[in-house]
From TrEMBL:
It comes from Microvirga tunisiensis. This is ABC transporter ATP-binding protein. SMART domains: AAA (SM00382). PROSITE patterns: ABC_TRANSPORTER_2. SUPFAM superfamilies: P-loop containing nucleoside triphosphate hydrolases. Keywords: ATP-binding, Nucleotide-binding, Transport. The keyword ATP-binding applies. Residues 6-248 form the ABC transporter domain. The keyword ATP-binding applies. InterPro entries: AAA+_ATPase, ABC_AA/LPS_Transport, ABC_transporter-like_ATP-bd, BCA_ABC_TP_C, P-loop_NTPase. Pfam families: ABC_tran, BCA_ABC_TP_C. GO terms for cellular component: plasma membrane. GO terms for molecular function: ATP binding; ATP hydrolysis activity.
Length: 248
């Protein structure tokens, strides 16, 4: 496996008296698909939000390519090549599939680039077309996002996160609410973007089968702490993991 892209060290986040994340450490290596799983309320989203600057950690550090990025704003992390999806769809319903992708690309490149250099495109039209072809959305390219099925919107949402060649993508429940046919398409395309383009990403997901099939490595959280880490097979056989799931 490649060099370390992201390193999370002893991250903690409390909300008043509630400790949502209690000292979690892990890393993400170039070219891998890392899964983060755990029972409801174990701190997965809080962890993502702390890594991506939506929340300021109570303690701990986050390094991107060996640079300390703890507490940087989401827009700054975007400019450094980290993008994400949210549990709730972030597509703009009144914009077409193509326009949504362009907008995501502009956000990833940083609006300053287009402001300073005039062109709002900076190669994004070609990139959007490439992404549309990659995720097999050609027949929907000019459709408004609101006209797409929920599964198609989730696919678009994921495609948007990969616009402009980010260094690292964090996907928050990409499979949530997606029907089986669309799910296998999403899984196959995510696998392909990793294999063919070397995309590195982290997936938070409740769908255990999806995670176990897709991810190269899995981190398991329970009650704000990391309780296991390993290949899908190792994690599945880990008694502590089984206990944490059966106990809920
Ligand atoms: N803004 C907040 N204020 C207070 N408590 C919060 C806040 N956000 C999260 N929490 C609490 O922190 C804990 C972790 O929540 P978090 O949403 O990170 O878990 P999760 O693993 O993502 O859950 P789920 O799988 O249900 O999405 C929970 O006990 C939750 O109630």
């Amino acid at each position: 496996m490649g060099t370390t892209i992201l390193e999370v060290q002893e991250l903690k986040k409390s909300f008043g008296g509630i400790s949502a994340v209690s000292g979690v450490s892990f890393d993400v290596r170039d070219g891998e698909i890392l899964g983060i799983i755990g029972p409801n309320g174990c701190g997965k989203s809080t962890l993502f939000n702390c890594i991506l600057g939506q929340l300021r950690p109570t303690a701990g550090r986050v390094f991107l390519d060996n640079q300390d990025v703890t507490g940087l704003r989401p827009s700054e992390l975007n400019r450094r090549g980290v993008s994400r999806t949210f549990q709730l769809l972030q597509v703009f319903p009144q914009l077409s599939v193509h326009e949504n992708l362009i907008l995501a690309g502009q956000e990833h490149k940083g609006t300053m680039v287009s402001r300073l250099f005039g062109s709002r495109d900076v190669g994004l039209t070609a990139e959007a077309n490439r992404m549309i072809a990659f995720f097999r959305l050609q027949h929907l390219a000019d459709e408004k996002a609101s006209g797409l099925s929920y599964g198609q919107q989730k696919l678009l949402d994921a495609a948007m996160a990969f616009m402009a060649g980010p260094r690292l993508v964090l996907l928050d429940e990409p499979a949530g609410g997606v029907n089986l046919t669309m799910l296998s398409h999403l899984e196959e395309r995510l696998r392909a973007i990793n294999a063919e383009q070397g995309a590195t990403f982290v997936v938070i997901e409740h769908n255990m089968d999806f995670v176990m099939r897709l991810c190269t490595r899995v981190v398991v959280l329970a009650e704000g702490q990391k309780i296991a880490e390993g290949t899908p097979a190792e994690v599945r056989a880990n008694p502590t993991v089984i206990e944490a799931y059966l106990g809920h």
